[in-house]
Design goal:
The protein is an alpha/beta fold. It is built from 21 helices and 30 strands. The strands form seven sheets. A six-stranded mixed β-sheet has the order 26-24-28-29-22-30, with no helix packed on it. Strands 8, 11, 14, 19 and 20 form a five-stranded parallel β-sheet that branches. Strands 4-3-6-7 form a four-stranded antiparallel β-sheet. A hairpin with a 2-residue loop joins strand 12 and strand 13 (279-282).
């Protein structure tokens, strides 16, 4: 592998020069022979030596310049801390330089070494400045700073040198000088530019986790609803994503962007809401989102951008667990097609969508097949997956498999150089120096051959990791042994004919990565949600208001960011599906109580309610009779009626029914889409058929007739009684008048009085006054024939 390659053109190292200086000409041959015959340190002695050298923690916090040249002064500063239980006295902090590294693997080995070893670590520099510490109590620390001109470091040739800072001193139980602590790093030394510089491509990823739910507000803008407001912390000054943009704008990098992140921040900038229990509250970080987007748009102008598929789908999980679930590959295709549109809309630049990036660059045949299925013909792999059995680091690009796919194989050591905690200054400093050392070592492997190297760091760098990466890239800014190119150019470089083009088998896929893949249930849930969405959208008059937010949410369900978060991923998927089901239930049949059907025919109404904020169409309501012989609908067992309802309204659909036999009939109402797919849950109720026969009608008619005749007879009798009473009263009145006339014979009568008497007797028309007819106690009957008497009782 390239990491094991030897560095060509190396000469005597400072360690060798130091050894020659210690063996002077004044030492005679017998003494020299005695030295050569002296016993070497035993493994036990080496182990004790290494253990003692961990008494003091030496923290190397700064090294400047990171890649010195002639005329520079190297300054190293840091802190020494006594981790032991005894006080340290007469201590000295000094520098140790050499030997020069001869391979990339040696650099890697030295970086992993912790304790001091006298047989491999160089002696302190002669006549170099030191820092004296007279007393250092247990648990106490002291700062140090050492500055040495490059000319005194013994850096005679270009190469990578080991640089050590050690503390030598005594303890109360051991009254002699020993190395009590040491820290090592690397000093890349290339005073003049090489003729064949390494082409270096550094990916700068802008990727985050999913924050947007499938829900939207009820306004015309469909304001998105966020699961939380955590993304704002990454966008604020000093936040992770803010640092990625502010640092990346001045660096020669290729931006690798998840379009979902852009869509999410753009939604924030245009106004958003956040879940707060069952309520939604306005988002408060609109200005933060606007500021970040403006800064990013300026940073990427004129730069190369690679757009990943929308929401950064987990290609390995899809290949290993999801491709056999119907429709899963379709999600990848939709996510890929959405990528370019999103980037162009938000950033106004044209991205490349030709690249796929499996997790940690690990590939196998199934991953490559899935990664390229949506049109991306270039795969970003890594050298610990696609391995090269070479003595040098080959060019990154090479044909893969059958040659239709280009693999861009990133360098594993460079790509993982900044993982881990970079908050501590010491960790950051050591990582920068090792990165620079490895990059120089690559160039010196074959100085006569120019090669292209790609660095694909961790997907989601922290703010401190981003700062450390930026410091390392600034260390290469002089371009003495490398110069930057973008990813598209790196993929087009002529491949090394000896580089591996074999796709590793599935058995070689790392177990630690396979264990963190998304489960197959993820893709089953996605299919369920997609199927229900497909059934739902065809009945809507404005389907895009539902398809877009739910389609994006489904894409987010297979995001790489869910790795290691199985519980949170399941909750998100369940919330998406539940919200979709809540919407579909907004179109429903209103529950109906049992009915009683009297007569041979009737109308049965069924009500459909639309609680949505848009109209529904292309629905069919089918009413089915549980007993077609007893109760028919439109001459058959079932009947269908089209349904079209405006937003927030209900529609009563009426079915004509005809009864043949008395009894109870179960009825089922079910909505269907235009293609015959059942929509929602069926609604059932019972109809009781109670038919009125001809005999019953005759009995009822006879009863009515008897009632009428009885009424007429009663009316006639009352009239006769009233007439007889009136006749009797008239006769009595005449008798009284006759008697009165006889008693008043010969008396003069007033004409007016006589007239009044006449008017009072006959009512003014000369006829005797009749008492008023009594009001009938029954209503008048119509002469028209009665109706059929159909009735549907609820």
């Amino acid at each position: 592998m390239g990491e094991a390659a030897d560095i060509q053109g190396t000469g005597p190292s400072p360690a060798r020069r130091w050894l020659r200086r210690t063996i002077t000409v004044a030492v005679g041959a017998p003494l020299l022979a005695g030295l050569l015959q002296a016993p070497t340190a035993t493994p036990a002695d080496a182990a004790e030596e290494a253990a003692v050298s961990k008494t003091v923690d030496v923290s190397l916090d700064t090294l400047s310049p990171t890649a010195p040249v002639e005329g520079d002064t190297v300054t190293v500063s840091g802190t020494v801390t006594n981790r032991g239980k005894r006080t340290i006295t007469d201590a000295t902090v000094d520098l140790r330089v050499g030997p020069m590294m001869t391979s990339r693997s040696e650099i890697d080995q030295v970086s992993d070494r912790t304790g001091y070893r006298s047989d491999s670590d160089p002696a302190p520099l002669d006549e170099a400045p030191t820092v004296k510490i007279a007393r250092l109590g247990a648990g106490l620390s002291a700062d140090f700073s050492l500055s040495v001109p490059v000319s005194e470091l013994g850096l005679d040739e270009s190469g990578v040198y080991q640089l050590g800072v050690s503390l030598t001193g005594q303890t109360s139980d051991q009254r002699y000088d020993r190395v009590l602590g040491i820290e090592r790093t690397f000093l890349p030394y290339q005073p003049e530019a090489t003729e064949k510089k390494t082409q270096l491509t550094y990916l700068w990823p802008l990727i985050s986790s999913a924050h947007v739910s499938a829900e939207t507000a009820t306004d015309d803008q469909q304001t998105p609803v966020f699961e939380d407001d955590a993304l704002a912390a990454e966008l604020r000054p000093g936040g992770r994503l803010e640092q990625m943009v502010s640092l990346g704008k001045d660096l020669p990098v290729t931006w690798v962007i998840d379009p979902d992140l852009l869509a999410t921040v753009d939604a924030m900038a245009n106004g958003y809401r956040v879940k707060d229990g069952i309520a939604h509250v306005p988002g408060k970080n609109k200005a933060v989102a606007e500021q970040w987007l403006n800064a990013l748009e300026k940073a990427v102008q004129g730069r190369k951008i690679v757009a990943l598929p929308f929401a950064d789908p987990d290609l390995a999980s899809l290949a290993h667990r999801g491709k056999d679930v119907p429709g899963s590959l379709g999600h990848l295709q939709s996510a890929t097609s959405l990528a370019a549109t999103t980037v162009e809309t938000v950033l106004h630049v044209q991205p490349s969508t030709d690249f796929s990036w499996p997790v940690e660059g690990a590939v196998d045949p199934s991953i490559v097949a899935v990664a390229t299925s949506a049109g991306a013909n270039k795969v970003i792999a890594r050298s610990d997956s696609v391995r090269d059995d070479l003595s040098y680091t080959p060019t990154a690009a090479r044909p893969l498999g059958n040659g239709s796919t280009t693999a861009v194989v990133s360098d594993k050591l460079l790509s993982t150089a900044f993982e881990g905690d970079m908050v501590r200054t010491e960790k950051s400093t050591l990582a920068v120096q090792e990165f620079l050392a490895q990059s120089l070592a690559i160039t010196l492997e074959q100085p006569e051959q120019q090669r292209s190297v790609v660095v694909a760091p961790q997907r989601v760098p922290s703010a401190s990791q981003a700062q450390t990466m930026a410091a390392a890239l600034r260390g290469l800014s002089a371009q003495r042994w490398s110069h930057p190119i973008d990813l598209q150019a790196a993929a087009a470089v002529k491949p090394d004919p000896d580089a591996s083009t074999t796709v590793p088998s599935g058995s070689r896929y790392p177990k630690k990565l396979r264990d963190r893949e998304l489960p197959v249930q993820t893709f089953r849930d996605m299919k369920t949600t997609r199927d229900e969405l497909d059934d739902f959208k065809i009945v809507l008059t404005l389907p895009d208001r539902v398809v877009t937010p739910f389609g994006n949410a489904i894409n987010r369900e297979m995001s790489t960011s869910w790795r290691g978060q199985a519980r949170a991923a399941a909750v998100y998927r369940n919330d998406v599906l539940q919200y979709l089901q809540d919407l579909t239930e907004g179109i429903q049949l209103v529950d109906k109580s049992d009915l009683t059907l009297s007569g041979r025919s009737a109308t049965i109404p069924v009500t459909v309610q639309n609680k949505l904020l848009q109209g529904v169409d292309d629905l069919v309501l089918r009413l089915t009779s549980g007993n077609g012989n007893r109760l028919e609908l439109n001459g058959g067992r079932y009947a269908e009626m089209p349904v079209k309802i405006n937003a927030g309204h209900s529609q009563s659909v009426k079915f004509e029914a005809s009864a043949n036999v008395n009894g109870q009939v179960p009825m089922t109402a079910q909505l269907y889409t235009a293609d015959g797919t059942p929509y929602g849950q069926p609604m059932t109720f019972n109809v009781k058929v109670s038919e009125i026969t001809a005999t019953v009608m005759l009995v009822i008619a006879g009863g009515v007739l008897l009632l009428v005749l009885a009424g007429v007879r009663m009316y006639s009798q009352r009239k006769r009684v009233a007439a007889r009473k009136a006749e009797t009263e008239a006769e009595e009145t005449e008798a009284e008048e006759s008697e009165a006339g006889e008693s008043e014979a010969g008396t003069e009568t007033d004409p007016e009085d006589a007239g009044d008497a006449r008017d009072g007797g006959d009512g003014g028309d000369g006829e005797p006054e009749q008492p008023s007819d009594p009001t009938p106690d029954t209503v008048s009957e119509s002469g028209d024939p009665s109706g059929p008497g159909e009735k549907v009782d609820r």
